[in-house]
Structures are given as C-alpha cells and as structure tokens.
Amino acid sequence: MHGAVRAPADRPLVVTALSGGVDSATAAALLVEAGHRVVGMTLRLYDASGTAASIGGRCCGPRDVEDARRVCAHLGIPFYVVDLADEFERRVVDDFTTAYLEGRTPNPCARCNQYIKFSPLLRRARALGADLLATGHYARIEPVGERAGGWRLLRGVDRDKDQSYFLFAMPADELGSIRFPLGHLDKDEVRRQAAALGLPNADKAESQEICFVPDGDYAGFVERRALTRGGARPAAGAVVDESGAVLARHDGVHRYTVGQRRGLGLPHPGARPFYVTRIDAARGEVVVGERSAAERSGFEVGDVQWMGPAPGGPLRAAVQVRHRAPPIAADVDVDGATARVRLADDARAIAAPGQAAVFYRGDAVLGGGWIR
Description:
about 375 residues; Rossmann fold; SH3 type barrels; about 25% strand
C-alpha cells in the first residue's frame, strides 16, 4: 500500500489515533482504502524506558510509537506524536494508585477514554483542520433514526472484543465527529485485512495488561508509586471473616479486590471457597466470606454520564458491571449524577466499588458511572 494515490482535497480529513497495534493500524488503512485523507496521531502517555513495555511493545510504550510511525510510512500518510504524559499520570495513573490504596477497584481504560483519548485528540484534530477522529475500538457509532445530528454508541459486532463498556464516558456531544471503522468487523477479519493490506504490524501480538503495568504486577506498581510519590509503604493488616475473626495477615489492602477468590493467603480455606466480600481500608481489613456475601442485589453508581438527555425518572435497563460480564436487567432510579440500581428478578452480582457500571438498552449504551 506504500505510495497509495493521494486522496482528493475535497474528501474529509480524518485523524486516526494509532496505538502501535494492529487494530488502530487497520482502522487507518481502511480509511485510506476508502479514499479519505488520513493523518496518523499517536499519544505518548507513559515513560516505559527500561521496562518490558520498551521491549515487547505495549500501548503507549516507546516501541509502539515506532510501530505507529512505520504504519504511517507504509500508508503514505502524515504522522504526529502528541505528548499527554502529564495529563495521563494525573488523570489515570494517580487515580489507579489512589483507588487501590483506598480499597476500590480502578478501571484505568475507561478513565483514559474519559479524559485522554477523545477530547484532547479531537482538539488537536480540529487544529489540523480535520473533520473526524477515528480509533480502532470495537464499537459502533450510528445515527439515531432520521433525526439530523443525533448519534448513539453501540456494542461492536464482535461480542468477544466489544469495547463499548470502556467508552461510556467519552464525550457524548462529540459522537458525530468520531468513527470506529472496526465496529462491524470481528478480530479474525481485522487480522486478515491487516495482512492483505501489508501492514508492518499485522502479526503483532495483543497486549493483555494495563499499558503502564506491563508485567501485570499491579500490587508492586502501587507500592513503588506510593513510595516514590512521598508516601509510605501500604500498611499490613488482617484478613477476617464476617464475624471479625482473624484468619490471616495481609501485606496491604491494595492487593485485594471485592469478589477475589484466589491468592487470599488463607491456610485452610475449607471445603467451600472464600471470596473477598468487602474491604475496609481505614481499618486495614479484608473481609472474606462465601460468594453470596460478596454479591449484591442493588448498589449505587456515582458520577453518572448519559449518552443523551438524562432520564427524567426511573428506567428499566440492562447493567453491566465488568468487561465481558453478562448484562443484567435492572431498575434504575436516577437522581442527578447518582443512580441507584436494583437488579431485577432476584438477580445478584459482584459489584466492586470503583468499577464501571454501564447501562444498555439492547446494543445501545445509555450511559454509566462508577460503583460506590
């Protein structure tokens, strides 16, 4: 595809966010194939020098910037790098660390989409005179009926790759300026397209970890960051049962999350497994019990954002509380930026504080917020 014919000047200019991976590269290539004028833009978010991210390649690592540059050279399109490392550290990494230290379970990908990947890139895209911003997310944006200017966010066709759960907090008023070229494709088709288009990263492996924790050791990362940010090592404490009896000791509440079953450090777990049912960071206690004690039939969601006008009253929706978790029918009472969720039909779910709760109607994202 190198040396492709230049698109006519009257075609829309599309800035495509490139992570260095095959998905965003394929999204850019498909736009070029469709005759759009395309510019590649990569975010430099985290200094991964000297880590696995600088060797094996992870989103936002040094190697990924170079992979994105190679893709743009292959496609014959301009390439820009945007440094948002300070904003990323403040909005995403600090939130991640604080959440774990406070006994919550963070969702850095959703936070990144909320604060980093869309609004700042849209501003830069418009500064270049671009009409649209495209990414390689597996989700869809479609017009709402015949109403001009109305758009909605939908699940991707590939349910195993669907990323709409992480996108609930993207700027709803900007949906019309965003495109997801992969939303109607499955992962196998994307790989085939990448190979057919000769993309230099067509065979690149997917990252399975959070970009700024490439080795997967979240607890170690939190500990190191707490120390380097002028704090102390997270305090040890007790693992207790629902009655308060001490079962074991732990090395910090940041090592646990509500619903966790493995790695609890219990010497004799018994015939029935224990789960983390709640975390009391102030007391330094990790409470464990049977799964039923970790499950909830209702919970509160804060900082709720809607993809359209906020509902004027209660609504029935499906709520999803983890990526790839099945959506559950629920009654949702809305009070400003707060929603109280009651799962329908005696359903129960593990809703970890700090995780995202996203509301759907069919494939459409209605909105979402953060579990309290």
